[in-house]
Write a structure and sequence with these properties.
Blueprint (H helix, E strand, L loop, with lengths): L1 E5 L3 H12 L3 E6 L10 E4 L1 H9 L9 E2 L2 E6 L4 E6 H8 L3 E4 H11 L5 E4 L3 E6 L3 E5 L2 E5 L1 E4 L6 H7 L4 E14 L6 E6 L2 E8 L3 E9 L11 H4 L4 H9 L7 E8 L12 E3 L2 H4 L8 H16 L6 H27 L4 H13 L2 H16 L2 H5 L3
Parallel strand pairs: 1-2, 1-12, 2-8, 5-14, 12-18
Antiparallel strand pairs: 3-7, 4-7, 5-6, 9-10, 10-11, 13-16, 13-17, 14-15, 15-16
Helix pairs in contact: 1-4, 1-9, 2-9, 2-12, 9-10
Length: about 375
């Protein structure tokens, strides 16, 4: 099949690799004149890491294996910790990486036969029944088109019109700095504000700062006023921001609900943020895009007829559950009522470690179930 992928982010590159492995002729359009990953750092849970490894993406050069994930109160008291040692023995490690390095690893794994066209944007899409796509005034027909072009997807806008976006009520600052001695990935909850730190390779630290704010509020100029109530270790991270500050600031916006394909157009599908942008509270947004790419390649293996229906069957229930659970967790992390906070924190501390492990198994297992579809690809 002749397949067009619009968008050269994580999901688009994974789709290009997975579809090429299935023997398709793949063209990849990217609006930017050069690959330029958006974001600072990323956590790759085993469901994402195992799929990437199976696709030939090398994580061990620049990736960092994380020993654990800790959620704590602002004062540093641990609420829950997930020890990754036992999990890694069963499912493989959890990795952290700078997004630029992950993007470079994906590019290195991209087959040379994929036709990559940088600086190319889509201006029109017309199913006839082949999908005719116009880019820079040139029209070309494809058997199938994949929209992997992010939250503000052009493919989605051209084929589905306006869709409902939802502001989470929180805004986020991200960046990379020098690691000040952290080993675990840590997220600290302080009511209106949250701080997260993730160790990266080469003695670096990815950090994210989240606080409740009106949409499109002006960026903070003094971080201590909002994030100053945390323990001494995290306060040192905030103090270090006086020398430059975060490199990125985004409101956390998501799609109200997933949208997989325009109605009545069985040769067009969306994946990643274009289909189901979600809040990052479970650390599974990019993982869902990676899973989408593998699932779509499997859905197209029998042919284009019925491919979208097979894709939706593979993805919708899992992604919708992830989207809603991430939304709920983000809301709970920012509860300000002291009684509600106490009840939540008490309940979190009471959960046995074996239950935490079981819950995490349940989170990643459906993604791991996609592995055979990669290994079976011709």
């Amino acid at each position: 099949m002749k397949i067009l992928i619009v968008g050269g982010g994580i999901g688009g590159l994974c789709a290009a690799i997975a579809l090429h492995r299935r023997g398709h002729a793949v063209t990849l359009l990217e609006r930017a004149p050069a690959f330029a990953p958006v974001g600072a750092g990323i956590i790759l849970a085993p469901n994402a890491a195992r799929l990437l490894t199976a696709l030939g993406v090398a994580l061990d050069r620049d990736g960092q294996q994380l020993p654990g994930l800790t959620v704590q109160r602002a004062d540093g008291r641990c609420l829950q910790r997930l020890d990754m040692a036992g999990m890694a023995a069963q499912h493989g490690p959890m990795w952290s990486m700078a997004r630029a390095e992950l993007h470079a690893a994906l590019q290195a794994a991209l087959p040379s036969a994929v036709d990559v066209r940088l600086g190319s944007s889509v201006t029109a899409i017309a199913p006839t029944p082949e999908v005719v796509v116009t880019s820079h005034g040139h029209a070309e027909a494809y058997d199938f088109v994949v929209g992997a072009d992010g939250l503000h997807s052009t493919v989605r806008a051209l084929t589905c019109g306006e869709v409902a976006l939802r502001y989470s009520g929180t805004t986020c600052y991200r960046g990379i700095t020098t690691n000040l001695g952290f080993r675990d990935a840590i997220e600290a909850w302080g009511g209106a504000a949250r701080i997260g730190v993730v160790p990266l390779s080469h003695e670096r630290l990815y950090y994210f700062l989240v606080h409740q704010a009106p949409p499109q509020a002006a960026a903070l100029s003094e971080f201590g006023s909002v994030f100053g109530g945390f323990g001494p270790a995290l306060t040192r991270v905030i103090t270090a921001l006086a020398h430059g500050g975060p490199s990125l600031h985004h409101d956390l916006i998501e799609l109200e609900r997933p949208l997989w394909s325009p109605i009545g157009q069985p040769r067009i599908a969306l994946l990643g943020d274009a289909a189901h942008a979600m809040t990052p509270n479970l650390g599974q947004g990019a993982a869902m895009a990676i899973e989408d790419a593998v699932a779509l390649a499997a859905a197209l293996a029998p042919g284009v007829d019925g491919a979208v229906a097979r894709y939706i069957k593979l993805r919708h229930r899992r992604v919708r559950s992830m989207q809603l659970n991430s939304r709920r967790l983000g809301n709970a992390a920012h509860w300000r009522n002291a009684v509600a906070q106490w009840a939540l924190h008490t309940a979190m501390r009471a959960v046995p470690a074996r239950v935490n492990r079981w819950q995490y198994h349940a989170l990643i297992r459906p993604g791991l179930a996609l592995l055979p579809s990669i290994l079976e690809a011709p």
